[in-house]
Amino acid sequence: MWRSHLARSLHQHRNQPESRFLQLATIDLDQRPRNRTLVFRGFLENSDRFKDCLKIVTDYRSQKVAQIANNPWAEVNWYFTKTRSQFRIFGKLILIDQECPDLELQSARKLAWQSLSEPARIQFAWAHPREPRVDFSEVTPPDPHEPISSFCLLLLEPIEVDRLELRGTPQNRWLYLQDRQGNWTEQEVNP
Ligand SMILES: Cc1cc2nc3c(=O)[nH]c(=O)nc-3n(C[C@H](O)[C@H](O)[C@H](O)COP(=O)(O)O)c2cc1C
């Protein structure tokens, strides 16, 4: 399954923190594509309902949040240099903000907050993104135990994965599709 191949790529790049940077494309309120780099925070573990979900953290005030509320479909693109493999992971985004009533998801949000480094946490206390630059010298570090209101956990729930391996001529490509029961099928296709 695609997850074992992704795990292998992550393992081979374990000494390169930048291998956890992925690109996430969403659709904006005018139906135009938007894309940005984000940090992969691992898979949501111990969840039957949300298995295979990728974890990302983001600020409630960022533009992607309004885009996701309007259209949850998104695609991640992720390239690993050593394994020369590209993963295009397509699915729906689930936003877990302070108002999320689901206890399991809220506790995952809290855990994600507690797992952040202090420099990562303080960014959520910065002034509103995309507004004219202000002085940041007075920002107090937020409570490391309780997530600040702007902190969101974002889950990408994949339904389709396209894996391209550049090694070999011709290259190798597989499509993974999830059926309604949540089972994955794999098909080897032409590159
Ligand atoms: C290497 C790198 C890692 C980043 N990691 C994150 C992240 O984990 N979460 C996040 O919200 N933004 C992250 N950013 C910033 C985003 O790329 C983006 O600028 C920000 O989320 C605002 O995007 P939006 O206006 O489309 O919502 C990262 C940027 C870079 C260059």
UniProtKB/TrEMBL annotation:
<protein>
    <submittedName>
        <fullName>Pyridoxamine 5'-phosphate oxidase</fullName>
    </submittedName>
</protein>
<feature type="domain" description="Pyridoxamine 5'-phosphate oxidase Alr4036 family FMN-binding">
    <location>
        <begin position="2"/>
        <end position="96"/>
    </location>
</feature>
<dbReference type="GO" id="GO:0010181">
    <property type="term" value="F:FMN binding"/>
</dbReference>
<dbReference type="InterPro" id="IPR024015">
    <property type="entry name" value="Pyridox_Oxase_FMN-dep_Alr4036"/>
</dbReference>
<dbReference type="Pfam" id="PF12766">
    <property type="entry name" value="Pyridox_oxase_2"/>
</dbReference>
<dbReference type="InterPro" id="IPR012349">
    <property type="entry name" value="Split_barrel_FMN-bd"/>
</dbReference>
<dbReference type="InterPro" id="IPR024624">
    <property type="entry name" value="Pyridox_Oxase_Alr4036_FMN-bd"/>
</dbReference>
